[in-house]
Write the structure tokens for this entry.
Amino acid sequence: MLKQKKYFFRVVTLLALLLAVGLTGAQAQGEAAWTILFYSTADTSDIEDGMMLDINEVEYIGSTAQVNFVAQVDRTDADSSWTDARRFLLTQDGDWQMVNSEVLAALGEVNQGEVEALVDFARWGITEFPAQHYALIISDHGGGWTGIGWDMTDNDDQLTMLELDDALTQITGELGRKLDFIGFDACLMAQYEVLKLLSPYADYAIVAEETEPAYGWAYDISLATFVQNPGMGVVELGKQIVDDYVYSYAQGEWSDAGYTGYDLNLIDLAQIPAADAALNAFARAVQANSRSVMSAIGDARNNAQFFGGSTPDEADLQSSIDLIHFLTLLMDFS
């Protein structure tokens, strides 16, 4: 899949970007404003092209003195110029087909579904590229509470939620604080169970409730704005990412591809404990009145908006329904 020349938000010229980068090769910087860690399990043949397009979008913008775009990318052995896992500081490059940034580490074959693979990458990125703010973006297939990332060349191993919990415990423990945000450029990850797991480890999450189109986030649009305004706070940056993602499929370059039903959400994880307390209170009320509300619960569950399939049986594989819609229906039915 070749990248078509993009025509939205190209107000930043190549010369201006080169001047902004101010880098002489991929050298570790002094403390920047942001370091964003991209953990890309492109070892998944059916969406590898789309994921490599995303990496090229980040590289098109490129790191600057104030913003580090650090990536670990694992690839398949099919139709690629390299097939192992490699680490990069993504520096500005106008080639949409190849990743031309300097390879800072060639790791050989890595199982990116293992805890230590993620921890080692994050530890390296944080150490080599210190910053005031840190974000982690994990890209691949997503399965909500079942996990994220299927490493095809390692028996489709994935990061389960328990493994992700272990990895984030280690990462934030060594960092000594929460990440500013965790993003999943993946399907079906805006589940309550996932957000509850993330809440001790990040201030915000950027996640999709529905399946994502194969082209993922609109990095070339969002990051072009970001590198010109590296003082953006996490809320402003998160809203930029969400708005540009929706724009790209509704009105932008992918609007003629026919994608529908997409979403992306910025979640304030500080609100999760209060939501958890409310759901626990709801569960206790249901237990105390189970006979009178059981039928209404079934009706609400069967009629609630669901994600990840076109039939209720498909939705049951993930048990992925919209919580607000379910509770609204339950109030109506009971």
Summary: The radius of gyration is 20 Å. Strands lie at 32-42, 67-75, 85-89, 103-108, 131-139, 148-151, 157-159, 179-185, 202-207, 265-268.
